Amino acid sequence: MTRRIDCDVAIVGGGLVGSSAALALRGMGFSVTLLDKGFCGAQASGVNYGGVRRQGRPPEQLPLSQRAHAIWPRLAQLIGIDGEFLRSGHLKLARSPADMASLERYAVEVAPFGLALELIGHNQLHERFGIAGGVVGGSFCPGDGHANPRLVATAFAAAARRAGAEVLENTEVTGATRTFEGFALEAGDVAIRTRTVINSAGAWADGLARAFDEPVPLERTYPSMIVTEPLDLFLGVNIGIEGGGIYARQVTRGNVVVGGERAAPLADPDYSRPRSDGVLAIMQRASELFGPLRHAQAIRFWSGTEATMPDRNPVIGPSATTPGLIHAFGFSGAGFQIAPGVGEVLAELVRDGETSTPIVPFAITRFSPASQPGDASQAAMTTGSKETSP
Amino acid sequence: MAERASPLIVGAGPAGIRAAMTLVAAGLRPIVVDEGHACGGQIYRQPLSPDGRDATARYGSEASKAARLHHDFAALGIAIDYQSNTLLWNLRDGAADILRRGISRRVSYDGLILATGATDRVLPIPGWTLPGVFTLGGAQIALKAQGCAIGRRVVFAGSGPLLYLVAWQYMKAGVDVAAVLDAAPLSAKLNLLRALPLAPGIVLRGLRMAVELTLRGTRVRSGVSQLRIEGESRVARIVYRAGGREHAITCDGVGYGLGLRSETQAADLAGCAFRFDARDGAHRPVRDAGGRSSIAGVYLAGDGARIAGADAAEAAGERAALALLEDRGLPHDSMRATALEHALARIDRLRDGLEAAFPYPSHWAGDIADDTLLCRCEEIDAGEARRAIRDFSLTEINRLKAVTRIGMGRCQGRMCGAAAAELLAAQTRRDIGAVGRLRAQAPIKPIPVAVSLSLDERQHDPAH
Ligand SMILES: Cc1cc2nc3c(=O)[nH]c(=O)nc-3n(C[C@H](O)[C@H](O)[C@H](O)COP(=O)(O)OP(=O)(O)OC[C@H]3O[C@@H](n4cnc5c(N)ncnc54)[C@H](O)[C@@H]3O)c2cc1C
């Protein structure tokens, strides 16, 4: 028997973006249905590296990133747990003078946003952070940090449920049509009538966009992670490397999480698995950089499925073809930190039709044929080889 | 035409040994990898160094089988590429990653026989992490491989045929076996009558063990519940309920286990389909009567596919090898294949009886005290798991893992996974089959971060 639901907002995708939007919308009194084809927070939002980092983001993301930055220390009030959020600082290392120059340029460029970046030379790196191995310097962002994605992503969805959102898991949205007053969604044996739809379907969001005549150049990536057994604490900061390679953090319990490289999709591209040569390369780089890892054991590898856009910026904002549809996807390997801010922005868009945070660069129209196709393809070519560190 | 790669056999227990022999007889030269230092698997494990005991002292009634398998495997000599002390840690794209002496190497294969065996299945009880508590399998390994006992005055508790076997082996080795505490009610043993005509030898031997233990003064109790192990810094006594009241036995060693569970991670990484098996109360890789998995070229044999014991493992190893030969278009003895299938079907019917005689006490999970440690790697107790299940409305085991870290530690859920699933099923009032199964992740067991790559692996790695 088909169950019918009427609501103000239906959110397709219960990742961190969708769940935080659900929570924010409940705070404004809207009736909300949050749908996930699997379990909320089980995809990118729950399996990512856990970097809570503003440093290294394109400047156009920084206003939104700063908004999210203010939310992270308030997690306990918001979702009932602190999510193991640590304001450890984020240290981005340079392996060559050219990379150091690039960090210096970035520091100048983003100075107006107030990240308080501090450039650090080789000797200081060793003295303050115990890092040696082939590094010429770094850039330190003291307010950044890391958190536990498995907990944060799950807790946002749970908090949305407690706040009164209808959360339907294992419920895939398979059909969406625009009706006179809004939308009709089909999802298993549930039929939903809603005024507004938020497309926060992560790596699966292009399907819904296409259904409303908005094809997007979304590609999937599968970052690859390893984690060690618990070790004595030696790494106080979240580490990234200019130009990519690895990124690493140590949790309070002592496990060290190291990411880098890419996993390979399985026959079903919804799933992926770390490639052995990839994890071996990560482990080799990590044990070169961090002495304590030379005698440690790696206990687990994993990866996840993430949506990447050619210009490495997300799509956030109203659909250009369909009133009432709002997109929020394509976070390009860096959506964990920013997601709680995105949730608030989406709620404002629903309530006011606009938001106090600048999101113009994230308009979906930047991919429509009319808007300079040359730029997009060029961006695709330059980002293919470059790997950012979350 | 390029020469075809060798088949790869994982595990050198009874299943792997018979599979290797069968392939060699057909003219192939399989690679055999095994974590152990010598062939034999768990059941016919060989000592680390000679300790003056002969096979009879070590394997008891199974001595002749053990000796024959060891001998047959040794006789293969260089007809196989045998790599001992070698961990298979990942499978991908028709190749295996194996680790030996700190070096990782990638091995391509044409045909993969997984004979990965089993480990103990446990549900946590208070005190199960005290020094002096071993799993039944662990207790047996101590005896076989190291020639030492887990204590001077020992109690064996839990369920399954292994319970009586290990207790009896300890008794034979001259250890004071104070008690055998069987979780299954005596009435369940009536199911042995069903198994009797199928394998009178096995059933009667089991009964004889119980009788001999009793005659030597071991307290043999059925239907025990609420097991609890007590002691300050190590085991001092075991407490249980039976016949409506509580009993305590002083001891300095406890062997504990509730049957076995299949080692299925390799099958999972190979992409094999799994299905819940109600009789065994576990998800296991699907296979046909010949041992073929759902993935072409991947075969499953022995306890790693389904718990059925050493004799079945031998037959299944040989049968899977015949399937591999057939699938590679090589001559193979199809009459022999049919005979092996009949033998395996018979053992499977015997298993029906044994499983019914030693039922897994799944109701225990509902009763585990909140302060009992559930996941020892990550130090998570039952109460924490229950809170997470409630607070996050969890219904699925991988979600429970994500939220609590249960099964994320060194053992990768191989020890705690079954118990966590039972707990989740009990609390959410779902069937154990409905809470899902922990998905396997590489590495199958921990590997060093500073692992070296073999020369050929370096050539594969674009970073060099
Ligand atoms: C391994 C990895 C490491 C990363 N590391 C970092 C990091 O350190 N820092 C950082 O900031 N970012 C990181 N990221 C990126 C970050 O995780 C993502 O940008 C972010 O989680 C995206 O959130 P989301 O809600 O858009 O997507 P998801 O979390 O993927 O959520 C989308 C949800 O939509 C559901 N869905 C899809 N289609 C449908 C449908 N038709 N009906 C119903 N439901 C549907 C899916 O099941 C899924 O749950 C990493 C990503 C990965 C994969």
Describe the secondary-structure layout:
The complex is a heterodimer of chains A (390) and B (464).
Chain A: E1 3-12, H1 16-27, E2 32-35, H2 44-47, E3 51-52, H3 62-71, H4 75-79, E4 90-94, H5 97-110, E5 118-121, H6 122-129, E6 137-141, E7 145-146, H7 149-162, E8 166-168, E9 173-178, E10 183-187, E11 190-199, H8 205-211, E12 219-221, E13 223-228, E14 238-241, E15 247-250, E16 256-262, E17 264-265, E18 272-273, H9 276-289, E19 297-303, E20 306-308, E21 315-318, E22 325-329, H10 335-352, H11 373-383
Chain B: E1 8-10, H1 14-25, E2 31-33, H2 55-59, H3 63-76, E3 81-83, E4 86-92, E5 95-100, E6 103-108, E7 112-114, E8 118-120, E9 133-135, H4 136-145, E10 153-159, H5 161-172, E11 176-182, H6 192-195, H7 200-215, E12 219-221, E13 225-230, E14 237-242, E15 245-250, E16 253-258, E17 260-262, H8 265-269, E18 274-277, E19 282-285, E20 298-300, H9 310-327, H10 334-357, H11 364-367, E21 373-375, E22 380-381, H12 382-391, H13 397-404, H14 417-428, E23 447-448, E24 452-453, H15 455-460
Parallel strand pairs in B: 1-2, 1-7, 2-3, 6-24, 7-20, 9-16, 10-11, 10-16, 11-12
Antiparallel strand pairs in B: 4-5, 5-6, 8-17, 13-14, 14-15, 18-19, 21-22
Helix pairs in contact in B: 1-3, 1-9, 4-5, 5-7, 9-10, 12-14
The structure holds flavin-adenine dinucleotide.
The site of flavin-adenine dinucleotide (FAD) has 41 residues of chain A, from helix 1, helix 2, strand 13 and helix 10.
